[in-house]
Amino acid sequence: MTFRKVDIIFVVLALLVVGGVALLPSPRDRNPKVPANSAHQAVTMEKDCLACHVPTGARPLPVQHPKRQDCLHCHARVQG
Ligand code: HEC
Ligand code: HEC
User: SUPFAM superfamilies in the record, alphabetically (predicted)?
Assistant: First the structure.
């Protein structure tokens, strides 16, 4: 199989698009981070987050908050 010039241009463009998308900021970077205190570091399972982040808990979620259980998908842990 022989490569034509147009094939190489296509491959280069495809790589640029994939690389560009990969570098877009993740929405996770903009959401509030999970605080790095002991209460949060003790939690290893996402369903345990709801011990406090329920309407009757220590820190209820805002009314507009997404009703999803994969908390860490959107909230990164603070590094350190
Ligand atoms: C022991 C109770 C408790 C548990 C369990 C808990 N949280 Fe929290 N969380 C709090 C309290 C209290 C605050 C607000 C005060 C603070 O910043 O510590 C808070 C604040 C937050 C904030 C907001 C930080 C900000 O900048 O406003 C996020 C995001 C958060 N928690 C996510 C989580 C996630 C994700 C989990 C599960 C891994 C979790 N929490 C488990 C009590 C808890
Ligand atoms: C789809 C993405 C997404 C998921 C999944 C998600 N959150 Fe959030 N969360 C957000 C966004 C965006 C905000 C900021 C909302 C705002 O500022 O109005 C937020 C805000 C918060 C806050 C701060 C509220 C405050 O008082 O300022 C806490 C606490 C929190 N989320 C906890 C959780 C927990 C616990 C879970 C899992 C049950 C979870 N989040 C799942 C996107 C998400």
Answer: Multiheme cytochromes
In angstroms, the CA 53 to CA 65 distance is: 11
DSSP state of 75: S
Separation of CA 72 and ligand 2 centre (Å): 9
DSSP string of 8-72? Answer: HHHHHHHHHHHHHHHHSPPGGGTSPPBP-SHHHHT--SGGGGGGTSSTTSSSPPPTTS---S-HH
Q: What is the C-alpha separation between 55 and 78, in angstroms, rounded?
A: 24
pLDDT by residue (tens digit) across 14-57? 999 988 887 776 777 789 999 999 999 999 899 999 999 999 99
Find the residues whose C-beta lies inside 6 A of ligand 1: 32, 34-35, 37, 39-40, 43, 46, 48-49, 51-53, 58-59, 71-72, 75
